[in-house]
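Here comes an entry:

___
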Amino acid sequence: MALAMIRIRPTKHRSGTYRLRLAIPAPLHATTLRLFGCRAELIENLGTKDPREAKQRAPAAEARLRSRLDAAEAAHRGENASLSDCRFVAWGANMKAEKSKAGLCR
């Protein structure tokens, strides 16, 4: 499954902090739900209320989100997980525990 490399930009949450949101393709919904506790989108808080700082932090955060999506795509295809994929799965387990509290996944 080839995913388009559409650039994503920071959006402001109602709390005032900026975050990145990356839509998850429909065929990966079940896989990302199992791995990360998120079905429709992956979200990363940029930890700032300053728009200029959010733009500076966005490329690194986008790379992390895309690598999570790549890990989900590999798991969906049934490929063996690499060490970095396993770290994201562990991250996903922690996210599941905290997502209802923080509202970071949809």
